[in-house]
Amino acid sequence: MKPYVLVVEDEAPIQDLLAYNLESNGFEVGQAYDGEDALLSITERVPDLVILDWMLPHLSGIEVCRRLRRKPATQRLPIIMLTARAEEPDRLRGLETGADDFIVKPFSMAEVIARARAVLRRARPALDEPELRVGDLLMDLDAHRVLRGNRPLALSPTEFRLLRHLMEHPRRVFGRAQLLDAVWGINQEVELRTVDATIRRLRKALNGPGEPDLLRTVRAEGYALEPHDADKTRPEAASSA
Amino acid sequence: MKPYVLVVEDEAPIQDLLAYNLESNGFEVGQAYDGEDALLSITERVPDLVILDWMLPHLSGIEVCRRLRRKPATQRLPIIMLTARAEEPDRLRGLETGADDFIVKPFSMAEVIARARAVLRRARPALDEPELRVGDLLMDLDAHRVLRGNRPLALSPTEFRLLRHLMEHPRRVFGRAQLLDAVWGINQEVELRTVDATIRRLRKALNGPGEPDLLRTVRAEGYALEPHDADKTRPEAASSA
DNA sequence: CGCAAGTGTGACAATCATGTGGCAGCAATG
DNA sequence: CATTGCTGCCACATGATTGTCACACTTGCG
């Protein structure tokens, strides 16, 4: 499958040049013209790579970068920064902020393509094997399997889709209606309480004996998936204090 | 109207350079040469943005920053920190302290201007922030959670909505009728005294043992949320930099 | 000092939201 | 065609939530 690249650049000629060349080289391209635009777009579809201009209207590139790094869903999303030569002192800060690579304007298209491939190659494991990790949960999207710790979970299709949605936004509380839309489908005539029932079944499947419940009920609001790290410290080694 | 920028920098050449360039670019500029100076100046007139040197006589930049964050009036005041490359390890602490952006010396004037504009632009919309912060209270709207310091609070739905409303307008006093409208809903037939009861429950949940009460009762008027930073450092005492 | 208005406090019962078990229709499977 | 597992839904149980009240206490004032 083609890697999906989001290009965030406010100058239209550069934007188009990038888009055209990336598409010619086997990338699928999304375009955004300012920071807010970019964040919205990413919310809808998480790209495999973001090419981000440093100077942007509304939201600067660094701010976009910082926000992306803050969200779990985009924490490891590869980012390449574009920066003008005059802005070079910023280079350090860009890398500190979490950009994976830097390209200084003016640049050649060959360079962009090369860097993009390099960054993607580096991030490859996450792309070849699409998997979601939240706490001690590991969901393999290809194999359609879920592990809690090392115990495989037997989930029905609905339970799987529900858990997947929750894992894509850990900690976030979803109302019953939202979950119906996201998991069952926009215009399905299903009772709200059906969500409860499915949550219950998912709970039963998720939580083995003695394990803490990962599904948090927020009364009058909905449900959220709560990450839980099974082994933050060694349980066997001298774990005094 | 021109944005009013306060530049806090003890080295006169840099100070003047900044002031000159900012003024040339449509800013109104105030100057301060040490931390106490800066705080005094801010008391007299709250700027739209503070550019703050990291190393200052009398009061370090980080301390100034922390104090500003403690005062409700300056809680969200945008702050840009200036720091020398050698001081880089402190960068983390700076962001923790609450600076909005960082500029590493040596910097270009264009960079300062750009950052200043960016920070100001960003300061406008506080709507898309999924977090509310008031004093030592932190409300995560996505996760539907509240922390006081690092202690998680267990709030009922009504308590949560009430606290949220108060946190959206810290220090402001709301009458019982206003709170009923905002929290319970416009046309609800509920006794005014119900607010008292809920405030009481919220107090109990909010205030741990030994912690000061954040809910101020204004006799014959209503209630207000009082920001309070649980800060143990005594800046008056010999503080190290 | 006493009064009146305003607020804190604890208790209570009705209500509400969610957990729970079970059932029946349905689709997939052999 | 029989079996199996999944799914939506319901009725009930349970526990948390919440509006209200009576009463104690505080505060301001003449």
* Percent of residues in β-strands of chain A: 15-25%
Element pattern of chain A in H and E = EHEHEHEHEHHEEEEHHHEE
**Largest interface between protein chains, with number of residues from each side:** A-B, 21 and 21 residues
Number of domains of chain A: 2
Radius of gyration of chain A: 21 Å
Helix content of chain A: 25-40%
Distance between the termini of chain A: 49 Å
- Can you name the CATH architecture of the largest domain in chain A? 3-Layer(aba) Sandwich
How many strands, which pairing sense, and closed or not: the largest β-sheet of chain A?
5 strands, parallel
Q: What low-confidence regions of chain A span 5 or more consecutive residues with pLDDT below 50?
A: 232-241
CATH class of the largest domain in chain A: Alpha Beta
Oligomer: homodimer
Spatial order of the strands in the main sheet of chain A?
A: 2-1-3-4-5
What is the H level of CATH, i.e. the homologous superfamily of the largest domain in chain A? Response regulator
Annotation, overall tally of beta strands of chain A: 11
Mean pLDDT of chain A: 80
Enter the CATH topology name of the largest domain in chain A. Rossmann fold
Shape of chain A: elongated
**Could you say which structural class the secondary elements and strand pairing of chain A correspond to?**
alpha/beta
Task: Output the number of helix runs of chain A.
Answer: 9
